[in-house]
Amino acid sequence: MSTDSGQAPLWQVYLLQCADQSLYAGVTTDLVRRLQQHNGQLAGGARYTKGRRPVALVWSDACDSRSEAQRREYALRRLSREQKLALIAGAEEGGKDVTVAPFWDWALRQYAREPTQALLLTLQSQADLVILEALFAAWLSTEGYRLAAHEVAAMRDTTGTWIEEVVLPLRAVREQWKSDESKEDARRHLLQLEVEAERHLAELMWASTEALRSEPEDSVTRERAMTETMEHAAARMSANMLALPGFENGKFAAEREQLVALLLEST
Question: What is the mean pLDDT of residues 66-80?
C-alpha cells in the first residue's frame, strides 16, 4: 500500500494459515507486500513462516493505529486454535461485527451514567466484581447471547493475566495517590493508562468469545431480543450475570437486580 499521500498508514491485524495448517498472527500496513515476504517472494518474512510455506491470508481487520493493531495481535495470539478458526468462520459468513467497538461504545455510555457507575464501583469493592466483565455479560444478553459459567472460565483463561498484572496494579496505584494533591497530574495520566488497559481487556474478552457469538443459543436473535418484554430481557441479563465471579450462587442478588434494571433502562 502506498503512503506517498502523506496520510497516516492504515494498520491491519491479520491471520495466516501455514502449510502445516498452523495459524500465525501479525500486523502490517501493507498486506500484499507482507504476504509476499512471508512466502519468500520478498525479503523480510517472519522466522516462524519461513519453514511453513506457502502461507495464505485467511483473516484481516483494519485498526486505527499501530498500538491498536499490536494489542489485537496480542489478543489473537492468546486464543486457542479453535477460537481463531471461529473468528475466521464468523468473518467468512459476513454481516457480523468483527471488532469490539459496538460493545466498547455501549459500555462507555452505560458507565457514564452516575447511578450505574456508583453501583458498579460498590460491587467492585464489595464483591470483587470485574466491572468490564459485568458490562460484557449484560451487553451479550442484549444481543441475544447466553453466557455460561464454563464460558466465563474460558474467557478468564485469556484475560486473567492481563487483569492481575496490568489492570489491578494500575488501579491500586491510582487509588493510593488519591489523597496526594502533588500527584494529581500523575493520577490523570494513570487514569488514561487504565482506560487503555480496559480497552485491551475488552478486546481480549471479545476475541475469546468469538465462538459463543458466532451462533446465538436457542435461536435468540437480536431482533427478537429487541421486541421481547422487559421481564424476559431482565431474566436473560440476570442469568448472564449469575455466571460471573461475584454473583455466583445468588450472591449480591438485590444489587444484581438493581444493576440489571439500570442497564436495561438505558439500553
Answer: 86
Q: What is the dihedral of CA 139, 145, 149, 153, to 10 degrees?
A: -70
How many Cβ atoms from other residues are within 10 Å of residue 165's Cβ? 10
* 106 vs 9, residue with greater confidence: 106
- The percent helix, strand, coil of the chain (3-state, each to 5) is 65, 10, 30
Q: Could you give the angle at the alpha carbon of 50 between the alpha carbons of 56 and 24, nearest 5°?
A: 50
Other CB atoms closer than 10 Å to residue 114's CB: what's the count?
8
Given a contact cutoff of 8 angstroms between Cβ atoms, the answer to whether 158 and 141 are in contact is no
Residue 174: C-alpha distances to residues 117, 126, 189 (Å): 18, 19, 9
What is the C-alpha to C-alpha distance for residues 119 and 109, in angstroms, rounded to an integer? 15
CA dist 240 and 104 (Å) reads: 18
The residue whose grid cell reads 433502562 is: 265
Looking at every residue in the chain, the average pLDDT score rounds to: 84
Q: Which three cell numbers stand for residue 204?
A: 481480549
